Amino acid sequence: MTIFFLFAARPLRHASRNPIPLSYASHMPTILVIDDNPAVATALETLFSLHDIDTRIAASPEAGLIALAQSPVDLVMQDMNFEEDTTSGEEGVALFREIRAHHPDLPVILLTAWTHLEAAVELVKAGAADYLAKPWDDRKLMVTVNNLLELSQTRQQLARRNAGDRRRRAALDEYTLRGFVHADPLTESTLALACQVARSDLPVLITGPNGSGKEKLAEIVHANSSVRGGPFIALNCGALPADLIEAELFGAEAGAYTGANRAREGKFEAADGGTLFLDEIGTLPLAGQVKLLRVLETGQFQRLGSNRERAVKVRVISATNADLPALIAAGQFREDLFYRLNAVEVRLPALTQRPDDILPLARHFLPADKSLDSAAEHALLAHRWPGNVRELRNTVQRAALLSLGARIGVDDLGLPAAAIPQSVQSSDPGEPDRTTIEAALARAGGVLAQAASELGMSRQALYRRIERLGIARG
Predict the structure, then answer these.
(1) Which of 98, 110, 144, 470 could form a disulfide with 131 if both were Cys (CB 3.0 to 4.6 A apart)?
(2) For the chain, which residues score pLDDT lower than 50?
């Protein structure tokens, strides 16, 4: 008759002789031992306690499954036989399959005897982490256990991150994103913040490098705001002469300045009941900053050449690629205006800081009948994109226009050779060499279009190949 025990002994606490890896030192790992032999359970519990590992003991498959259902563990060590005079390992197989069905990612080490070693090997093929023969070597056992615990923690961290990503994406589904193409977690975090602050009436300052998509982000803030039914008016403060900024912002009466033949409304009036987006706010002259500050404080302004006060209700979103605190220190930007505009800052990272966005954006910019080959995709990922999304869009659209075939290659992109990894430069084994190109040029009488057609290349790709190889065209 076999007696089943469920041990709940308190692990022994000793100074660790072999410190556990730092990757999970902040979390004491837990191992569940499922074995009906009290001597085996006690030996393992003692060994693990010396390495600061918590141990739970179950003396039967049923008790082990109950323990797993009650609280999570990091690793399971299970015997292959439990009933008296049984050596087939069938019980161990059934237990493993039950654990795997309910806990597919939980690592399981099998404790085996020679009589059921073959069954253990089959279970390893089916997903068991490892098997150890009794009696075991403590040193080898701890190497295996430490490796599996580190792997288990990595999987748990990845699972938590993936779960967080799914929650964030689900939350973003509630908002209007205006077709904003994204895949990088950093971009999703930025979008989540922009959508969160959109529903308040606070001014928003969007910071980030040129070409990163700040105006698109401002449109998203507007589309999810309480004034989304009103107009969205954009003004690039850096694109206008300093003497016209005031008229653009606040309007002007007829005769207010040379050429003002009739009265005109400014951007604030045009944006009444909606959103005014002030791009490149750091370039606004100091005189314009003073008047902008007054409008933000009072909601009132005067047209240029008029003494009549006008009132508007406008949500102001501003954007800059400049270091505004540095401009404040240099006396070029008003500190009080900065704090008025910067109630909430949303920073849009450079494209190289959100690399998972690169290929989805590139595919978005391509026409339906064009696609990128693998070498071109590698080149896009390797490029630093100093011009950010704007540069990527121009590069891809130019390549789509100039490429003759449906597939866009590295040469079609026209990226600097230094920006393309050696592994993808001229990586196509079918790309013509110097002799082939010179022969085609000779037959075409030096006409690039004819030679390119013969070689199955675009004219631009052939031209870049000629330049790279230093082939004379005369």
Answers:
(1) 110
(2) 1-26, 423, 426-427, 429
